[in-house]
Specification:
By secondary structure, the protein is of the alpha+beta class. 56% of the residues lie in helices and 13% in strands.
Length: 428
């Protein structure tokens, strides 16, 4: 029976991921997004020519860093980035890759990646200078910083997911939509209503907490009282995720958009690390929130009650703990922290209807790697995932960096199934 449930769940999960993936394009095109240290690069000219050198078309990146050039048919095309149009202080990471040969298949849109880097951090072609070793370690330092930044965002999302699992046993596939909801709330208040982003983020966190409470009060709590199985509730969460995702698509649209504030900030140099000021501030906020939530779990009565419910709900209830009330508080905190994670993710990239779904797999990886149901395990696992994703690009193509993180997850699960900070349990 257990094998049948696992097989059915795996099949359903794969089906959902296929159904929720973008539809095939009607025509052929080349497109891409230019980013420098996570920030879109505007006003860069991209030209496309056929194999014979005949021009096909050109485009200029917009405020979101995106560009697209339709092509007449499937085939191989030469895509050239005009380096003279790059903003000051930004250059190609590899100067000999200003022109790329790209194969476009029938009915598909092909993404083209140009790696950018701050001036002075570019690599050369065949010729190497004596400073290559120094450049390599500078790059490692930069990727480590970016890995911590990504890991802290994942940790914010993973902490709420892990707490919900620990207290209810629910594997919530709709948790990614809580991130999207928070980012879109902040976008609405910041861009549409013109409220400063800091205040918009605070409002978004409050609304996210209310949304989390409402979900459990009128939906998940009702299902628990009716005795719904965890497998049934997990499947319902998949349906809820799809529903919310396409609601976001309907109201927000399919294109990503940035916040109105803190766009295109000039980078500051701290040793070998170069980043926008907002990245340092965001990391400080993320660390502070994670520490506060962690201390609340350890020191407050509600935190101790939450840990008691996670250990043994029946014993906690017999001890006088209001289990439903504790679970509702966990959902409220989880929704608020997930909304903050969505705002931080939207600050480092554009807000889009799929942003939560796209990071959900990494959130699950962080939770599972650290130990299911443990808040501090989710933090440790998320940091490991973020670091490995970024540092793996030293040896593997950028397109495969997520695959490497999942490979680490598989290896850890083979040798330590309970995760890094999880406790070994007896089965059977």
């Amino acid at each position: 029976m257990r094998r049948a449930v696992i097989a059915f769940t795996a099949f359903l999960g794969g089906l959902v991921f296929l159904l929720s993936s973008p539809a095939w394009a009607d025509g052929e095109a080349l497109k891409g997004t230019l980013q420098n240290q996570g920030q879109p690069v505007n006003g860069v000219k991209i030209s496309v020519a056929g194999e014979d050198g005949k021009p096909v078309g050109d485009a200029t990146t917009g405020s979101d860093g995106k560009w697209e050039v339709p092509v007449p048919e499937a085939g191989t095309y030469k895509v050239t980035l005009d380096q003279s149009t790059l903003p000051q202080g930004v250059g190609l990471k590899f100067k000999d890759r200003a022109t790329l040969n790209v194969q476009v298949y029938e009915g598909s849109e092909r993404n083209v990646l140009f790696a950018l880097a701050p001036a002075g951090q570019q690599g050369g072609g065949a010729a190497q200078s004596s400073s290559d070793s120094s450049s390599f370690w500078d790059r490692v330092a930069q990727l480590t910083f970016e890995g911590f930044n990504l890991g802290l965002i994942i940790a914010l999302a993973a902490m709420g997911l892990s707490l919900v699992f620990g207290t209810t046993g629910l594997t919530n596939f709709a948790h990614g939509e809580l991130l999207t909801f928070g980012a879109m709330c902040a976008y609405f208040f910041n861009v549409v209503l013109g409220i400063p982003l800091v205040l918009a983020a605070v409002i978004s966190v409050v609304i996210g907490g209310v949304f989390g409470y409402t979900q459990d009060r009128f939906f998940w709590g009702v299902l628990r009282k009716r005795g719904s199985s965890l497998v049934a509730m997990m499947i319902i969460s998949i349906g809820l995720a799809l529903f919310l995702r396409y609601v976001f698509l309907f109201f927000f649209g399919g294109e990503g958009a940035p916040f109105a504030d803190y766009n295109a900030q000039p980078g500051i140099q701290v040793g070998p690390i170069s980043a926008a000021p907002k990245n340092f501030i965001a990391m400080g906020i993320e660390l502070a929130v994670l520490v506060i939530v962690g201390l609340a779990l350890l020191k407050t009565r509600v935190g101790k009650a939450a840990r008691a419910v996670a250990d043994n709900p029946a014993l906690a209830a017999s001890s006088g703990i209001n289990v439903d009330g504790v679970i509702r508080i966990i959902w409220t905190v989880g929704g608020a922290v997930a909304s903050l994670a969505g705002v931080m993710l939207g600050l480092s990239q554009n807000v889009s209807y799929q942003m939560g779904f796209q990071i959900l797999l990494l959130v699950f990886a962080g939770v599972t790697l650290g130990g299911l149901g443990t808040a501090f395990g989710a933090l440790v696992g998320s940091i490991v995932v973020g670091l490995f994703i970024q540092l793996s690009t030293v040896v593997v193509p950028t397109e495969l960096k997520t695959v490497g993180a999942l490979l680490v997850l598989i290896l850890v699960m083979l040798f330590r199934p309970q995760g890094i900070l999880g406790r070994r349990e007896r089965i059977g």
